[in-house]
Amino acid sequence: MTQKVAIVTGAARGIGLSTTDILLAEGYRVAMVDRDGDELTQVAAARENVLAVIRDVSIPSEVEAIIAETMAWGERIDALVNNAGVADFGPIEETTFERWRRVMDTNVDGVFLMSQAAIPALKETQGAIVNIASISGLRASTLRVAYGTSKAAVIQLTKQQAAELGEYNIRANCVCPGPVKTKLSIAVHSQDIINAYHDSIPLNRYGSEREIADVIVFLLSEKASYVTGQIIASDGGFDSTGVGLP
Ligand code: NAD
After folding, report:
1. Is the confidence metric ipTM above 0.85 for this complex?
2. Annotated catalytic residue: which of 28, 147, 197, 206?
3. pTM, two decimal places
């Protein structure tokens, strides 16, 4: 049987690494993309059936190279997981244009560029896209003008992709994780934010990388063959409460 090929961006650690491991266990070959070369080289060396692609998803020429290298290695693309992301929390007046752009470059441009470049290959396989947004894209909050806006854009981008690519039987869905303890969240979650999340999430805890990755892989699978354009929170119930983001 033909082995399916997935691209996972931001695969060197966190949610992307967990997604890679589940896809490998399900028989995929995985092109692991990350701009952090040291971390990516290390984790890729410990796995079989992977290609380490040390590149930046926010740069058009790098994105072209990601697709070309993946096709040269795997000859097909069945799944694209746009997971690479950066976070920067701060109030509007303290968010410089440089900080704003840094978030938009990866979180929005990266998802747009990677998806656009992968479309020809996805048409061949009738593949699927999963974009990773956040509960920060569903709710407004103080502190998240750049991050929240970027993730709201990912949500709308997913709907646009689903609307446009359905005729090729390409599905596009979006996962909105709640808080997960990763390098990204550790950098921006103060103790006040951690406490508030524990109090307001119905399941009273952070999620694990695996709990997000399982939803991503489900959406890529045949079990979700009639699901497209959906925005699915894996957040311990946070979004259902109506409580504001801390
Ligand atoms: P992480 O920092 O552990 O992993 C993100 C990876 O993306 C890193 O390895 C980083 O090097 C890579 N990356 C960043 N910018 C890149 C670029 N331009 N090109 C290539 N690689 C790049 O973070 P994580 O928590 O696993 O986050 C994964 C995704 O989940 C992100 O999109 C994030 O916004 C989203 N998310 C995370 C949380 C959370 O609480 N951790 C909550 C909601 C959403």
Report:
1. yes
2. 147
3. 0.98
